[in-house]
Structures are given as structure tokens and as C-alpha cells.
Amino acid sequence: MFGDVAVTHYFWPEADQSSPTVFRITHTWQKGPAGWHIIGGMSCGVPRSGFNPAVEQQEVLKASQAWRDALNRRDLDAVGRYLDDDFLGSADDGVFLNKARLLKRLEAHTPEEEQRGDVQDVRVRVEGDSAVVNYLVAVRESCITWHLPLTSLGD
Predict the structure, then answer these.
(1) pLDDT digits (tens, 9 = 90+) for 58-81
(2) Fold for domain 1-48?
(3) In the beta sheet, which residues pair with residue 135?
């Protein structure tokens, strides 16, 4: 959530668990005078396949840690490999960023200016070829430490 804008990611609950397809949903919400409203979204069908959730979760956690390590080193080539070309996210100041803008923004900070620490309260949900990772991380910017809840969505 960023001020009056929130992004949600979830899988549509299916009554028929034997269906070969599940639907991944993303909604962007904005709070206005009359309350919260959906201002954008998308959905797509993904195959329901047999997989080992524990193994998949560990792979996602390993990739998430490698991405944070690359951020801390300011290895922008590595960071870029973890971001899809169609990446769209928002910064802590509410600015929406695509992949190029995020990498340019990261390039402006040295590793000494900003570091992401250990994560806490980690939750991973894997569904088919997509995963959602939620965690709390301490981000140190020069003399300031922020505690930010983060969500990573990967596929």
C-alpha cells in the first residue's frame, strides 16, 4: 500500500479443485471519497501442475535472497536479471517505476547509502509457475533505518 493506492495479488478461489487451470489475479485499488475502488487489474489462467511446494518455496526464497544480495552490492546487471522486462512497481515515495527507471534509481545510490538487512516474518505462496513472497525487512538509508513490509511476485 502506498498512500491511497494498493496492489493485491491472489489466486481466484476455485470451487472445482480438479480443474487443470487456476486464475492469477492482480488488482490496483485507489481510495477516494467514496472508499476503495479497483482502478486497474489483470488476470490470467495458469496450469495447475503437480509440484512439491516445500522445494518450490525454498527455490523462491533462495532467489529472493540472491536478489536482495545483488541490491546490497549494487550489482545492477544481477538485479536486472531478476526483473521481468515488463516489471512495474512503486517506490516507498509512491513513484511508479518500470525496470529501467528502477535500475537508474538504484544506480544513484551507493551500497553504503542503502542496505537491506535480514528479513523477518517471511511467507511464501507458490502456485504453479508463480510465487508471492511477503516479508518485513529493515532498510538502512545512511543514518535512517526503515522497516518495510515487502511483497515480491515472481513467475
Answers:
(1) 888 899 889 888 888 889 999 999
(2) Nuclear Transport Factor 2; Chain: A, (3.10.450)
(3) 150
Q: Which long-range contacts (CB under 8 A, 24 or more apart) does 51-56 make?
A: 51/126, 51/128, 53/126, 56/126, 56/131
Check residues 146 and 32 and name the one with the higher pLDDT.
32
pLDDT, one tens digit per residue, over 94-131 is 788 889 998 998 888 777 777 677 777 888 887 767 78
The 8 Å CB, 24+ separation contacts for 90-99 are: 90/2, 90/5, 90/7, 92/2, 92/146, 92/148, 94/2, 94/3, 94/5
Name the residue with higher pLDDT: 12 or 27.
Answer: 27
**20-52: b (≥16 Cβ within 10 Å) or e:** eebebeebbbeeeeeeeeeeeeeeeebebeeee
Fold classification of 51-154 is: Nuclear Transport Factor 2; Chain: A, (3.10.450)
| Domain parsing of the chain, residue ranges | 1-48, 51-154
